[in-house]
Amino acid sequence: MFMRASDALSDKKDHTEWKDQKCWWKRRRSLEHEENAGQELSRGGRTRRARRITRKKHEDEGFFMGMLEAVIGNFIHSIIFICQVAAVATCMTLSLRRIKKQDYINLNNPQQDVDNQNISLSLNIFYVLVLAQGVIFILLLMNLLVSSQRIHIKFVYKLFTRSGRNILIRYQNDNFLEFITGNVRPTLNMNLITFAKNLVVSSSRDDQLLGIKAMDGILRSVKYRSLVLVRLGASLDAEALGKLLNLLGRNRDKDEKDIRGHAARVVLKLAPNLLVENFPQILRLISCSLLHTSSMKMSNMDVDLVWFGLRILDKLTDNPENCKQFKDHDGDLLSKIIDLTNLCDHGSTRNTISDSWIEQEIIPLLQKEDDIPHPFVQKIDQEIIVGMSLNILSKLVATSGAAGEDLRRETSKHFNFLSNTGIILEHVEAIKVISCLAIDAAVRKEIGMLPGIMKKLKDCLLSKPPYVNITKVAAKLLLLEYSTSEQLNKIQLFIEGNQNLEDQTISLPVSAFIEELDKDQLLPPWRKSIVQKFDLEDLLLAPRTNHSEAAAEALCLITTGCQNNVVALLHEIDAQELETIVNMLSSSSEDAEKEKRRKLAHLEGRNLDPETLRTFRKIFCAGGEEHARRSMLAKLLQNLHAYSGQEKVDHHIPVIDKALSKVFKAIVDEVATLENALSTNGNLSQIKDDLQIKGGRVLESFMGLSVQICRSVDANYFAKALVDVHLKLDTFVQKLKKILELFRSPTTDFPSIRRSTLELMTWMVKNNGSYRDVLLQCGVYEQLNEVKMTARKLESSKLFHCGVDVLGDHGILCISYLANELMEQLQLCPSFLERCCYREPAGTISVLIA
């Protein structure tokens, strides 16, 4: 009885733990039970704080009693074990002494030799057996080493539950049986994750449940996850992986639902390396099993199943090849994803996460050490689910080729999901969806007829940083419940400091402050496992968003080739807002640095603690990428200028025309940047591709805008624009020629860069004949031959998005025709025959191969 005392107490403890963790795969355990318990306590008039204190007291008492039982059991076990060791040591010592002395008989009586020999032999056999028994007992002590190793594995691989103990015992026993039957090599090569995989693909439901729980627990170990995934990938063949995916369809009873839940967590870790083409059933399983509740109300929805279903889809759609397989799916998966974007009423602050809600509801609640109420948790989960759904949808509609065209067409049938335009301000992914849908001309027209969308996009375009990723903020709000009171007090001090600021231009939204908090700031070390439990790792690592850049791209696509949309947008923009957009063309890095220093100086004077000050610096010093936004703004202004000849919006044209000098300066500065990179590296091939792409995009858009403006002004206005930025004509022409040299092989990122350059040169010589002589002196004529030799078909396109020519067959002249036209204009120069023979000194202009 005493020998089994510790095991009995341990079994009792494990049984209680098993009852508590019967839904261990869920992100929140027994949420419904806690809510019901809270309602019962509320009837007694007790506050949430009192309920939390009572629950903590019960948890502490349960933990103390469990530890007391374990200590008593281990104490009894230790006493019995020490007695056993003492008894065995005594027996072995006595046996060795008697065998060594051989003093069993009286040597003084030789008449009893025969009897003495028999007695000696018998006693020797007896003492040898006693000694052998002691040796065997010592060998059995080796099990203690196995037990200690088992405890270590439990902590390393997060196998704390009863199923974790069972998988270890099963692994030990099965391998021992295999070893004694002669299967030595397979036994030595059998690791724990492979053993769990074998149980998962077996035909026994109990083995499947045991194996999938073990795999889920092991994959939650952050330290060893990558190694485990490598070993699991090596042991999973196509058939075994197919069986694992099929577990997502189990839902007949509680055990099968547990199998499905744990399988969803495991498949999520394997999803980045899965090809839907090889396992087409995965889309059907996700649609039917995990997202089957998405059409229900949130109160009846299994949020965890929907969560993991979307997370798996998010990982799958990171691979463009997987996105193409969605068009062949016969189910309603796409419509379910679109339905999930409507969970929140973003037109009402009551159902969305706002700064005022965080300041007035969440932070005071947590400071009182209350739990976040279930309705608030539900609200946060809704926001995250909407963000994940939009992110998946944005990747699907951005698919290239025929598959992308089909997906965009299917999505446009449900275009009413954007009727709630508040989602545009909250989630930048919604703007990306609009951009991709605007590739189709019919959808572009439909978007233009929704003034709410145009207005929200304009508001996003004119918005100022910091830009907040609301999905990331929502994820961090879930972790604030486990933060220390010290961190919550820092957030409260930030809120109070914001309210007391005299200069509100320095104030920051509390959501931006929470977004920049690190995991180490949010959680104490002993609480970091919550991140894995809630499956928030990827959300916490989400990149920064730029709503202004995304809105500029969307408006550029919406207004391309659609005059009605241009008119609709110009009706939403007043003269001051248009001037603001024009001013945004300038990089104005000096002004930005000056403003940044002013804000930081003010912060340092507020005597903030170092940690909070570092958070502020991260917000203010976040380097936004301006190249893409400036490029899209220039294209947008180009569209507005090109199609704004009607409907009483001509008063906007002079505002855009004033930007000509800024455009010229931007062109010269960007070419100079590329030249400096070239002189440093010696060869264009050594310049980073991203630098060339960024520069090409900016130059293409600014060249197109300059051409559009020049068509509405005269040569004098052109010359004045050069003088305003202190540019000489020959210097400007040299930069234009340099563009033709640097970008001999345009790509879909900047298809019309050389065409716009030739159009501007042609306009210059047509409007001022004296410019022909300058172009000839700069060697433009010789460069035109290179242009004709390297002409590409894509240069007849104006804009590509998602690999698709937005305007399609639009009748734009090919670049060879433009080069010939400019050459004919240059030949009209009176001194053409003399001038064209000159060459610039070697090294002044170098022809570069892109």
Automatic annotation (TrEMBL):
It comes from Eragrostis curvula (weeping love grass). This is Uncharacterized protein. The chain crosses the membrane at residues 75-96, 125-146. SUPFAM superfamilies: ARM repeat (SSF48371). The keyword Ligase does not apply. Keywords: Membrane, Transmembrane, Transmembrane helix. InterPro entries: ARM-like, ARM-type_fold.
